[in-house]
Design brief:
The chain is globular. The chain is 40% helix and 15% strand. It contains 10 helices and 11 strands.
Length: 285
C-alpha cells in the first residue's frame, strides 16, 4: 500500500479562493475584514510566521496591521495596547504571536482579547464553547486538520482516533473536535504506557508532539489515516514532521506531508475565523 497525500497547499488554495469571494461580497456592503497581528520581540521563527499571516491577509483582501513591539514592553502596557484594538471597529480579529517574553503572562494576555475577536481560538470562552459543542472560534491548526479529513470525505463516526500530544493549542482541542464528529478518541502523551499498542488500534492518528519520527511504520495499522502536525528539521536542516513519512506512507491509506500539509491550513483557518468574525459583527449581511 502507498498512501495518498492530503495536499494542504492545494486545499488551502481552494478555501482561500472561497474566502476571497466572500470578502468581495462583504466589500460591496462597505465591510472589510480586519486582522491585527501583535509581535513582541524579535524571535526569528515568529517573524516568519507573522510575515506569512500578514501576506495571506493581503492576498484575500483583508485589512491587516502588524504591531511590532519591543520585548521590553511591560505586561500592563501590552494589555493596554490590546484593549485599544478591542475597541477598534476596523479590527475583527486580534492575534498575539506566541511565545511571549518570559516576564509576560501569556494566559493573561490571551484572556484580555475580546472573545468575539479571538480568531486564534485560544480564549477560555472559545475553549468552553468547543467543550460544550457551541458555535465559536476553533483553534486554527486542529481546525485545519478537520478540514483535511473532510476533504477526503472521511466519516469519523465510530472510528478510533488517536491524538498524540495534549497541548492547549493542538492536542486537546483536536480531541474535542474529533469527539464532536462522533469518533472514539484516545489522547496519548509522554506518560502513556505502551504507545504502540494504542496507535495500532487507531483508524486515524494525529501527531502533534514536536519530535521527529516519533510515529514509525510498525506503530500504524494498514489503512489508517495519518495527520502530521509536527514541524522539525532533520540532521541536514530539511523540514520534516513528527512522522517517519517514508515508512508510514507505505502502510497508511492517507497521509499529510511536511511541508505542504497542515502548515498552510493553519493560516487559512485563521483567515476563515477572521472572516467569520467580521460577518458576525454585521449579522444582517
Amino acid at each position: 500500500m502507498s498512501a495518498q497525500l492530503i495536499n494542504g497547499t492545494e486545499l488551502s488554495k481552494s478555501i482561500r479562493a472561497s474566502v476571497t469571494q466572500r470578502v468581495k461580497q462583504l466589500s460591496k456592503q462597505g465591510i472589510t475584514p480586519g486582522l491585527a497581528v501583535i509581535l513582541v520581540g524579535e524571535n526569528p521563527a515568529s517573524q516568519v510566521y507573522v510575515r506569512n499571516k500578514v501576506k495571506a491577509c493581503e492576498e484575500v483582501g483583508f485589512y491587516s496591521i502588524l504591531e511590532s513591539i519591543p520585548a521590553t514592553i511591560s505586561e500592563s502596557e501590552l494589555l493596554t495596547h490590546i484593549e485599544k484594538l478591542n475597541k477598534n471597529p476596523k479590527i475583527h480579529g486580534i492575534l498575539v504571536q506566541l511565545p511571549l517574553p518570559g516576564h509576560i503572562d501569556s494566559s493573561r494576555v490571551i484572556e484580555s482579547i475580546a472573545p468575539d475577536k479571538d480568531v486564534d481560538g485560544f480564549h477560555i470562552s472559545s475553549a468552553g464553547a468547543l467543550v460544550k459543542g457551541l458555535p465559536g472560534f476553533w483553534p486554527c491548526t486542529p481546525f485545519g486538520c478537520m478540514k483535511m479529513l473532510e476533504s477526503i470525505n472521511y466519516d469519523l463516526k465510530g472510528k478510533h482516533a488517536v491524538v498524540m500530544g495534549r497541548s492547549h493549542i493542538v492536542g486537546k482541542p483536536m480531541a474535542l473536535m474529533l469527539l464532536e464528529k462522533n469518533a472514539t478518541v484516545t489522547i496519548c502523551h509522554s506518560a502513556t504506557v505502551d504507545l504502540k499498542a494504542i496507535t495500532l488500534q487507531a483508524d486515524v492518528i494525529v501527531v502533534a508532539v514536536g519530535k521527529r519520527k516519533v510515529l514509525t511504520r510498525d506503530m500504524v495499522k494498514p489503512g489508517a489515516v495519518v495527520i502530521d502536525v509536527g514541524m522539525n528539521r532533520d540532521d541536514n536542516g530539511k523540514l520534516c514532521g513528527d512522522v517517519d513519512f517514508e515508512g508510514v506512507s507505505s502502510v497508511a491509506s492517507f497521509i499529510t506531508p511536511v511541508p505542504g500539509g497542515v502548515g498552510p491550513m493553519t493560516i487559512t483557518m485563521l483567515l476563515q475565523n477572521t472572516l467569520d468574525a467580521a460577518q458576525k459583527t454585521h449579522p444582517a449581511n
